[in-house]
């Protein structure tokens, strides 16, 4: 980067910088003001400098909420640190607000703490009489809450460089933040260039000017300046969100058919691959609805190309009958569920881990299937490759459960080296071995080889009706029992190959936290911080939910208490109506209680927000009766 | 194996196989005696024999219903799936397998009620496949409930005093759908016409939608008997580009109407005849309609290196 032609115009006045380990920065605005682009760029610049990064989008529920409204906060949070960062962190340290009203929503969500810097666009102080009054009142309120306020003439400063300040203010803010946090201005300029690579040279130049202007403004006018140590890795890294990782995973798994129907927050997983899917030998089928999407995928899989369907909770509800068919008729299939708040349309843009039980048990009858839950962006990529292999080896649908937090969270990870071994073999069109039945269930493992249309001698009629080994409709009831056993055995066979989950912390203690999916970063950080303060707490994170990872019961026995930490609904003990008998548990807790006969507690909620370490620490303080937070 | 130009290529001459009708018949069909499905099954098996379709390259996809048991009685590949969902499955099969001959078997409840959404879109996808709508105007398997094609006033178990809504006309509806490319109607009890219709449908380069008026002797005897017995009940749509019957066969029909199947507006008019007679023949055909299966097959077999390159070039976008 040092040989970049874009050099800093004038060496800024030397300033003193405070060394910090990490920072949580938010940029909030009305939607459409480019806050997310600004934050993503800050994240990418930091990742390029070798910092750990996690970014999470702040999304209003409506596409276009009224401008300058309390509920309208749209934007992004960027957490950057000298070490690897795995979650969104606790409270923000620094917030840039393009209007002051949107801050209210974030304050309600407990996103800030006394001492948080609020850098607020001050044009509203003089805009109209009405805005002026609201602005002044808000500034006073924020001061009273202990935030450190800097009123900044962002628009006025931008107007020195561009005629329409709505275009480009975000790059000025990026410059401002780059100065505050000592970001490499050459890397930043290269990033701005990359963003506008399809635009004219004039546009690129004016945005770079804005970047420099914001940088200089912070240098000359703001008192707080920090630096975060970083180390550039020799390894190649990529930085992306979980949906993009799923998308690349689909392609790298050699999956040629992605059959979907648009639904937030899953859709962008299909957008991300759209540009290259065709040249990567595959196609996206946008079906007429979710039922058709999975039916189409099952058709493609039946004909020899294991397909993927990507959706969210309401889509899973519609697909349920077909999922049952895929289990019953043993059709390999990858189903990605990017979970959002439910039930019903729920919280379309917000996170929840609410589909676990629906996915495990949602079908009519017993429908055992494989369920995986990646816990990092990197795993979102690799688990799709794993899922296709498992689907084919075990002749069954495989679920990959992600959620809105993974879908939009951005994190750098080592660039995967795509291997041809990840791709499926060409469709088997050899002659089917004579005498082998369409479901030649191995009595021990339930596994069988699958005939594919085109294979001579393999002809059979797949059916969702109970069937025997030859796929003939079962008129004898004993066949159904045998077939159900065979399908169930496959999970037992896979279970046998799995390893015990790793424990973070000691193998025994006062409390074991158990999580799954996107909460891993927050749980593990909370556990590490609690352990530093002497708490005898450990955690483990499950990646296989069906079949369950082995050894859990004996692991649990070594802890005084076991509790799951999840983002879904559970009754909290304390309400006078809630008793041990009627308490409704968080979903993993429910499942683990049944599987392990252990009295497992749970901590969960449905605010629609990712969990932060501090929330978990505060819960631990109460459970363990210790002081774990400042 | 014989070698032509040994250092250039080997040509393997496959054993010549001939398929007879038995090669397409599996277990004995379990439909009621007198059910129209039996004759359709026979006619389909005849088509497979005439066309010498390799059984391993032929797939029958169905939904749920009496009619949807069909694939079990063929000795080909089959997919007896969910009620109303044969279309998406068949489309998924055909999407990346241009080498497979795909047939869809569906009932009037299956296609025109629970699967109606998929019907609309399957017509629009226009993938090369033959769709046989077994229309007995009743729910057979679940025992005589009103179907969307039951004539107004049909006595059923859900409407014992007579059904209360006018029926869907599947021909008319299909002719109204975007990208429709082949719509024909026949009856199960006129084998010559049935065979000729299936052949025409099989040859069509796109989705051939064939409604077969089907007898249900158990639940709908009084509805069909008059039509089956009355020599005036049927009107044949005749045209050199339509379903062409041999002169002798054509002579057996009393009512013949000329209809040019290239004329969509006229086809919709002719479809209205359903109210007064049973028109059989080709209503409409357009061999040029856009085909989604051609899109599906356009990038098959991209070499692995190229695929990896494409993925890497996308990955570059995220590289830091
Ligand atoms: C989701 C679902 N709903 C309902 C049924 C029950 N069911 C099976 S077949 C059928 C109707 C069959 O009628 P039709 O499609 O006309 O076929 P036919 O039996 O007359 O050939 C119904 C309602 C089912 N199998 N699945």
Automatic annotation (TrEMBL), chain A:
Name all Pyruvate flavodoxin/ferredoxin oxidoreductase pyrimidine binding domain ranges: 249-476
Gene3D superfamilies on file: 3.40.50.920, 3.40.50.970, Pyruvate-ferredoxin oxidoreductase, PFOR, domain III
- Show where the Pyruvate:ferredoxin oxidoreductase core domain sits: 510-581
Top-level taxon in the UniProt lineage: Bacteria
Q: Which InterPro entries match?
A: 2-oxoacid/accept_OxRdtase_asu (IPR022367), PFOR_II (IPR033412), Pyruvate:ferred/Flavod_OxRd (IPR050722), Pyrv/ketoisovalerate_OxRed_cat (IPR019752), Pyrv_Fd/Flavodoxin_OxRdtase_N (IPR002880), Pyrv_flavodox_OxRed_cen (IPR002869), THDP-binding (IPR029061), Transketo_C/PFOR_II (IPR009014)
Q: Please name the GO terms of the biological process aspect recorded for this protein, alphabetically.
A: response to oxidative stress
The Pyruvate/ketoisovalerate oxidoreductase catalytic domain sits at 32-216
* Gene Ontology MF terms in the entry: oxidoreductase activity, acting on the aldehyde or oxo group of donors
Alphabetized UniProt keyword annotations: Oxidoreductase
According to UniProt, the name of this protein is 2-oxoglutarate ferredoxin oxidoreductase subunit alpha
Automatic annotation (TrEMBL), chain B:
| Gene Ontology BP annotations | cellular respiration; small molecule metabolic process
Keyword NADP assigned: no
What is any Pfam family matched here? PFO_beta_C
Alphabetized, the UniProt keywords read:
Oxidoreductase
Per the record, the domain of life is: Bacteria
Query: Which residue spans adopt a coiled-coil conformation according to this UniProt entry?
Result: none
Which SUPFAM superfamilies does the UniProt entry name for this protein? Answer: Thiamin diphosphate-binding fold (THDP-binding)
The residues covered by the Pyruvate ferredoxin oxidoreductase beta subunit C-terminal domain are 255-294
Alphabetized GO MF terms: oxidoreductase activity, acting on the aldehyde or oxo group of donors, iron-sulfur protein as acceptor; thiamine pyrophosphate binding
Residue limits of the Thiamine pyrophosphate enzyme TPP-binding domain?
Answer: 64-211
Q: Does the keyword Endoplasmic reticulum apply?
A: no
What InterPro entries does the annotation carry? 2-oxoacid:Fd_oxidoreductase, PFO_beta_C, THDP-binding, TPP_enzyme_TPP-bd
**The name this protein goes by in its record:** 2-oxoglutarate ferredoxin oxidoreductase subunit beta
The record lists the organism as Marivirga sericea
């Amino acid at each position: 980067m040092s040989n970049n032609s874009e050099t800093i115009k004038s060496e800024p006045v030397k300033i003193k910088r405070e060394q910090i380990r990490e920072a949580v920065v938010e940029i909030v605005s009305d939607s459409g003001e480019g806050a997310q682009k600004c934050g993503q760029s800050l994240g990418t610049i930091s990742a390029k400098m070798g910092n750990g990064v996690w970014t999470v989008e702040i999304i209003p529920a409506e596409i276009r909420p009224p401008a300058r409204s309390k509920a309208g906060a749209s934007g992004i949070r960027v957490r950057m640190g000298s070490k690897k960062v795995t979650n969104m962190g606790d409270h923000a340290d620094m917030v840039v607000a393009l209007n002051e009203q949107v801050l209210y929503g974030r304050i309600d969500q407990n996103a800030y703490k006394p001492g948080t810097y609020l850098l607020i666009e001050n044009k509203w102080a003089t805009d109209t009489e009405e805005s002026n009054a609201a602005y002044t009142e808000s500034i006073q309120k924020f001061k009273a809450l202990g935030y450190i306020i800097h009123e900044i003439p962002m628009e006025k400063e931008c107007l020195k460089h561009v005629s329409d300040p709505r275009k480009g203010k975000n790059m000025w803010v990026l410059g401002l933040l780059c100065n505050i946090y000592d970001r490499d201005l050459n890397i930043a300029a290269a990033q701005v260039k990359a963003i506008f690579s399809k635009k004219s040279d004039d546009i690129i130049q004016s945005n770079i000017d804005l970047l420099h202007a914001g940088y200089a403004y912070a240098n000359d006018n703001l008192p707080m300046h920090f630096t975060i140590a970083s180390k550039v890795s020799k390894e190649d890294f990529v930085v992306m969100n979980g949906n993009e990782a799923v998308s690349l995973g689909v392609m790298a798994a050699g999956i040629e058919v992605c059959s979907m129907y648009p639904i937030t927050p899953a859709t962008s997983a299909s957008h991300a691959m759209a540009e290259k899917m065709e040249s990567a030998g595959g196609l996206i089928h946008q079906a007429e609805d979710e039922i058709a999407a999975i039916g189409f995928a099952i058709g493609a899989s039946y004909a020899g190309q294991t397909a993927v369907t990507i959706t969210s909770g309401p889509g899973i509800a519609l697909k349920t009958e077909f999922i049952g068919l895929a289990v019953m008729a043993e059709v390999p299939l990858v189903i990605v569920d990017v979970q959002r708040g439910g039930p019903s349309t729920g919280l379309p843009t917000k996170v929840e881990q609410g589909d676990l039980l629906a996915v495990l048990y949602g079908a009519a009858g017993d429908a055992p299937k494989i369920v995986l839950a990646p816990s990092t962006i990197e795993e979102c990529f690799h688990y799709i490759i794993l899922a296709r292999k498992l689907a084919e080896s075990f002749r069954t649908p495989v679920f990959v459960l992600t959620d809105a937090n993974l879908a939009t969270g951005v994190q750098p990870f080592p660039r995967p080296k795509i291997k041809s071994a990840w791709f499926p073999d060409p469709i088997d069109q050899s002659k089917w071995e004579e005498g082998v039945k369409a479901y030649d269930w191995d009595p021990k493992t339930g596994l069988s080889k699958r005939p594919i249309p085109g294979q001579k001698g393999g002809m059979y009629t797949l059916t969702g009706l109970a069937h025997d080994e030859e796929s003939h409709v079962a008129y004898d009831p004993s066949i159904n029992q045998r077939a159900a056993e065979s399908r169930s055995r496959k999970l037992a066979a896979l279970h046998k190959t799995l390893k015990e989950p790793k424990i973070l912390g000691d193998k025994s203690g006062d409390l074991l936290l158990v999580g799954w999916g996107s909460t891993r970063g927050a749980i593990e950080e909370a556990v590490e911080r609690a352990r530093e303060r002497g708490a005898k707490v450990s955690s483990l994170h499950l990646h296989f939910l069906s079949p369950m990872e082995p050894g859990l019961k004996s692991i649990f026995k070594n802890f005084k208490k076991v509790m799951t930490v999840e983002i879904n609904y559970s009754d909290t003990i304390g309400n006078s109506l809630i008793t041990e008998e009627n308490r409704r548990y968080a979903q993993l807790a429910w499942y683990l209680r049944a599987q392990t006969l252990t009295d497992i507690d749970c901590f969960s909620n449905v605010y629609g927000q990712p969990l932060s370490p501090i929330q978990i620490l505060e819960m631990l303080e109460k459970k363990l009766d210790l002081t774990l937070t400042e | 194996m014989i070698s032509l130009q040994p250092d250039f290529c080997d040509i393997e001459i496959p054993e010549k196989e001939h398929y007879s009708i038995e090669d397409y018949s599996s277990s004995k069909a379990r439909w009621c005696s007198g059910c129209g499905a039996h004759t359709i099954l026979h006619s389909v098996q005849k088509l497979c024999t005439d066309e010498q379709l390799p059984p391993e390259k032929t797939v029958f996809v169905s939904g749920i219903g009496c009619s949807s048991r069909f694939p079990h009685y063929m000795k080909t590949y089959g997919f007896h799936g969910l009620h109303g969902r044969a279309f998406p499955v068949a489309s998924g099969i055909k999407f990346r397998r241009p080498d497979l001959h795909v047939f869809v078997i569906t009932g009037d409840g299956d296609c025109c009620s629970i699967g109606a959404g998929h019907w609309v879109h399957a017509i629009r996808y226009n993938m090369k496949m033959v769709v046989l709508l077994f229309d007995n105007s009743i729910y057979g398997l679940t025992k005589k409930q009103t179907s969307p094609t039951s004539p107004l006033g049909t006595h059923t178990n859900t409407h014992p005093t007579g059904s209360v809504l006018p029926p869907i006309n599947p021909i008319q509806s299909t002719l109204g759908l975007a990208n429709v490319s082949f719509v024909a109607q026949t009856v199960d009890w006129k084998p010559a016409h049935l065979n000729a219709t299936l052949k025409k449908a099989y040859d069509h380069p796109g989705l051939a939608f064939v409604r077969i008026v089907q007898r249900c002797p158990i639940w709908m005897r009084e509805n069909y008997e008059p039509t089956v017995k009355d020599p005036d009940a049927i009107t044949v749509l005749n045209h050199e580009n339509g379903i062409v019957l041999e002169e002798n066969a054509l002579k057996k029909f009393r009512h013949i109407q000329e209809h040019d199947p290239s004329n969509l507006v006229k086809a919709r008019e002719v479809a209205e005849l359903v109210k007064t007679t049973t028109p059989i023949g080709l209503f409409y055909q357009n061999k040029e309609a856009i085909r989604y299966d051609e899109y599906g097959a356009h990038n098959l077999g991209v070499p692995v290196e190229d695929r990896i390159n494409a993925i890497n070039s996308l990955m570059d976008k995220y590289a830091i």
